[in-house]
Amino acid sequence: MVKSISSNIPIEFISKISKKEANSRKPIYQIHKWFGRKTDAIFRSILLSLELEKGEIKNFQDIYYTNNQEILKGKIILDPFMGGGVTLVNTLRLGGKAIGIDINPVAWFITKNELQVPKNDDADLDEEIIERLKIEFKRIENNIGNEIKEAYTTSIYDSNEHKTVDIMYVIWVKKARCPKCGKYVKLFPSHAITKLKRKSFENYNICPKCEGIVRGNDKVLVCKKCNHKFDKNIGNYKGRSFICDNCGTKWNLIRDVMKKRKAPLAAEIYAIQYYDSETGKKGFKVPDKDDLDKYNHIEEKIKSSIDLIDNFTPQIRIPEGYNTKQIKNHNYNYWSEMFNHRQLYYLAKLLEEINKIKDVRVRELFLCMFSNTVNANNMFCMYNSQCGKIEPLFGDHHMAPVMNPVENNIWGTRFGRGSFIKYFKSFLKGKKFNIYPYERKSINGKNNNIILEEEKFCAYFTDNFEDLIRADKNIMLKCSSAENLSFLPDRSIDAAVTDPPYYAAINYSEISEFFYTWDRLILKNTYSCFKPNHVAFNNEVTVNDVRGITKEEFQSKLTKCFGEIRRVLKKEAPLILTYNSSTAEGWILLLDALIASGFIIEKTYPIHTELRAGLIDNRRDKMNYDLVIVAKEKIDSNLESIRINKFMKDVNTEVEDVCTELNDENLAFLDKLLIKVGKVFEIYSMYCPNIYNDSTIITAKEILEYIYDIDFHCNV
């Protein structure tokens, strides 16, 4: 019988739920930041479609929302580029066994903690998880949490009453010395602190002259303290340039300042956002002497805590790379320089307490939680003035320095985001999902969580394939390259489902080292993948101009990976990929790698998938879809041939059919191009290499370049 993945899947239904999930991830995937995670919906759908018969497609929606804990029973699914672990989570939910591989130790560690729970006993598992984690959290709170909370307090006068209140955020401003007059210039892109659109709410601004707080929503404001008139939207810093407040000279920050010094810019506090737990009031204040003294006292603590800092903060240099070049241009040479002294001291104290946890699983779960906390507790976070909250470092996939960094309250208050207590609560929800997984369904216009308790899952790890088959084990995780799968026998895997490296994509190894340097402090003596000082940058399947990794090397590595995958797949077993590219070259490299490794393309499906930062906004020139590619081993040589005119006619006909089936009125220009690429892949595989223009053979490269260059007027 033909499985639905090889014939047809309900792309409109899957795309709709995938689009919703892109904006609201399931809690299991919120236990730690990972880059470019695809939605749960797409991989659940793929895995269900592996076993559903062609005729069952009409019942797909009903099947999707029911317990399917045995549909993959007896099957072994491989994800050779597991990333954030979505394939593995869904495989275990559906009763299969899984093998996850990733060269990145951070991805390996995140996935391990998604799958593992404090205790694997079925009895009272939910209560055991919550209670075990709460006990350790309370111990950490008593030992260091209360001290951190005290460190993040400030004083205000409320109706002439002097009160101690919680700090939510501390907002800093960087300073550059004018090369001409020598004055230190505080770099403000604007003087608006908040830009909230609330009825009867007066926004907070900073006076550029006296640096007092100025309330008001008008564009031009007058400071009541010094009578200075200013445009709140105009600062002295824009792009990479700043204007000296004293002599009026304009300077390029990188060229004129950073290249003539060795250290990052210094910074000082200019505003504090506080929360009064008694009244529920939030507000801003300028730092007073007590605030500055409290911070300076931390610097003294650091001087007397050398062992703490050496053992529990990163001491590693930032490596040269494509993505790290952003921060090295600003003279950040060590990962520790991305944090201020208060952050370093209390993150070190927090990590020290986590390291005292005796239970290995619980310790790793808390380390995962801590590692995620670091993302929102560094001096590369920014204040979202329109929402009144902090934006973590990797809200977008880059490490660009900011001129007005925000220091978070590490432990946290009732309000605010990115604190340890907030991530702890989020982590509890993530672990509850192991026991009570659900699918979100819209009923009468409202989202409802359909609990699928029979699909509860937890990891029974093994490092040995024979144990995975014979013993009561269900998961095998490897931190290694998919170029070498020698630990797997030939013809042993029922399907490979993965999101492979993209051509010209972000170098995850470079940016993930931010987390690696902290995780390594605890894990280096336990796991060999955390022993090196750095993530294995040069072994990553990617293109990196700075490191001299060319597109030819990328294709060679990818071909080798696909060749190993083909070797371990059972006969007729599929390799299923999700992929997208904005260039013809990206698609050509993928197709060439698949064909060179012995695959042909059986089917392709466009699915609305991950919410790409800066890309998705439903305008006509944006790409919102990924292509699901179903590939199988090529068995026989093609004997049939086709003329290019007929080839393109067939492609265009199928593209229109798919667009009709998708029923997406916001289908973007580039999304239609992606669909067309998929149909080229399919039909090319049917006739490869016998596509002719008169007597000349036409290659896939020529077809794809034509589509991009002529048909869609895109740059190749």
Can you describe what's shown?
The chain folds into 2 domains: 4-116 and 459-711, Rossmann fold; 138-189 and 235-428, no CATH class. Helix 2 crosses helix 4, helix 11 runs antiparallel to helix 12 and helix 17 packs antiparallel against helix 20 (700-711). The strands form 8 sheets. The protein has a 7-stranded mixed sheet with strand order 20-2-1-21-22-24-23, sandwiched between helices. Strands 3, 4, 5, 13, 14 and 17 form a 6-stranded antiparallel sheet that branches. With 716 residues, it is α+β, with helices and mostly antiparallel strands. The two termini are 41 Å apart.
Short characterization:
The protein is of the alpha+beta class and 716 residues long. The protein is 36% helix and 18% strand.
Please describe the structure with a list of short key phrases separated by commas or semicolons.
alpha+beta; transferase; DNA binding; Rossmann fold; 20 helices; 716 residues; coiled coil; methyltransferase; 2 domains; N-methyltransferase activity
CATH superfamily of the largest domain: Vaccinia Virus protein VP39
CATH topology of the largest domain: Rossmann fold
What is the CA-CA span between the terminal residues?
Answer: 41 Å
User: What count of structural domains?
Assistant: 2
What is the CA-atom radius of gyration, in angstroms?
27 Å
Report strand order across the widest sheet.
20-2-1-21-22-24-23
Number of helices: 20
Helix content: 25-40%
- In round numbers, the mean pLDDT is 92
Query: What top-tier CATH class of the largest domain fits best?
Result: Alpha Beta
Query: How much of the polypeptide forms β-strand, as a percent range?
Result: 15-25%
**Structural class given helices, strands, pairing?**
alpha+beta
The biggest beta sheet is recorded as: 7 strands, mixed
Mass-distribution shape: globular
CATH second-level architecture of the largest domain: 3-Layer(aba) Sandwich
| DSSP E strands, number | 27
- Stretches where pLDDT is under 50 for at least 5 consecutive residues are 612-620
GO molecular function, one term: DNA binding
Coiled coil: 123-150
Pfam families: N6_N4_Mtase (PF01555)
Keywords: Coiled coil, Methyltransferase, Restriction system, Transferase
